[in-house]
Amino acid sequence: MDAAGPLESAPRTPTTTAKVGAVIAGTALAVVSVFITFGASIIAMAAIWIGWAVARRRARPLTRGISWVVGAGAVGVVVLSVFAFVLATRVPRSELTNFKRAVDSAAAAPQQPPPEWLRKITPPNAQQPVVHSVVRSSVFTLWMMVMGVTFFAALLGAYAGTLGWAASMLLAYGATGSWFARGVTDPSLLTAPVPLPPRG
């Protein structure tokens, strides 16, 4: 494998038909993924090719696993950045104030008694007031909202990143006749260290 590039040599010289087929399949997948992911797969493909250029400049191969992480991570970061930008610039301060008031009023509302079946299986010494106060707090609500947005960004990043990564793999093979390099583990890390001879 050439250490100066992100692609590994194919075991056999690819035919022109295989390369043309890879270009067609990669282009079709790229176009379809743009409509399916509302353009998010373009971010993944752009990030992968930027990573390819950076790896080539540093004379290191861009492996298949790292290229997928780059594509999926780029989509997730962009989604979180867009959400933060919209929240900071597009949402009026009055809406945030109303949201906080709604959360505070919901937390101050009288607590509904648990159903009979839950009271029967709940130990009498369970600290339910503490748990309910935490769950009904505004900090917990904000934390749940942030976690929900983060989970959505990670899910969209994995979905769109996988489609963009697959399209990039096909296009790279069609253009160069080689796939992205496999991640290779250093065999020396899997062997036990050689014991030193005793000092005499």
Map the helices and strands:
Blueprint lengths: L15 H21 L3 H18 L6 H26 L3 H16 L7 H6 L6 H8 L2 H39 L24
Helix pairs in contact: 1-7, 2-3, 2-7, 3-7
Query: How would you state the average pLDDT, rounded?
Result: 75
* Helical residues, percent: 55-70%
The dominant shape is elongated
The helix count comes to 7
The value of Rg in angstroms is: 26 Å
Domain module count:
1
Which parts are unreliable, with pLDDT below 50 for 5 consecutive residues or more? Answer: 1-6, 185-192
Oligomer: single chain
Structural class: mainly alpha
Strand content: under 5%
Provide an overview of this structure.
This protein has 200 residues and is mainly α. The protein has one domain. 67% of the residues lie in helices and 0% in strands. It contains seven helices and no strands. It has helices spanning 16-36, 40-57, 64-89, 93-108, 116-121, 128-135, 138-176. Helix 2 (40-57) packs across helix 3, helix 2 (40-57) crosses helix 7 and helix 3 packs across helix 7. The longest helix is centred in the last third of the chain and has 39 residues, at 138-176. The radius of gyration is 26 Å and the shape is elongated. Mean pLDDT is 75; it is low at 1-6 and 185-192.
